[in-house]
Amino acid sequence: MAYIVVATGNAHKVDEYRKLLDGQNVELKSLLDYPAWPGVEENGKSFRENASIKALAACKYCDVPAFADDSGLEVEALDGRPGIFSSRYADTDAERIARLLGELQGRENRRARFVCAIAIAVNGEVIETFEGEVKGVIVDAPRGKDGFGYDPVFMPDGYDQTFGELPQEVKNKISHRAEAFRKAMEFVENEMAVLDDDF
Ligand code: ITT
Q1: Which of 55, 69, 85, 182 shows a CA-CA span of 20 to 30 A to 43?
Q2: Which tens digit of pLDDT belongs to each residue from 54-82?
Q3: Which atom in ligand 1 lies closest to the alpha carbon of residue 148?
């Protein structure tokens, strides 16, 4: 069976992608399967740039088609922060959430969106990037134990539960990652003739 590498060391992302790929005739590996992976500096200025940097580095290192996801939370009242620095905002998920809630204390505007950029790299080249988003609000205190990152404080529009409370199947239908991935899959299916040798 053909396999593809998702250029992430984040086990939660791998889990979400594995479910999104359910039923496809492709095996998913991640950088967790490459313990000697040296890492790559995410020094891009946008989600798309960072996704491209990660996808390209993994494609070259693993010598197979790779895709990468750079994602994060943009908060309106913080002028879009933490944005591409969502992972680097603090050391642990609990600290990231505590810092976010601290910065939002007393702010009326709780609007935020999760963004995900996916880049696909084949034969040492980034061939396309895709973006997805999900809009919602930041709640006052963490709710729910599911998901990862900022999930317990993010409530998507149209729901009264956070991503930490909603079943993973629901998050995987409406999330930024799911939307970007749907676009990526559509592209791969349409371009299959070109990519057939590689996928
Ligand atoms: P890789 O670079 O190895 O993929 P990472 O976790 O560092 O792993 P990013 O650089 O893309 O990934 O940072 C994304 C951060 O944004 C992530 O660590 C979370 O804090 C947050 N984030 C992204 N998607 C999320 C989601 O679906 N739910 C909650 N938080 C999310």
Answers
A1: 182
A2: 999 999 999 999 999 999 999 999 999 99
A3: 29
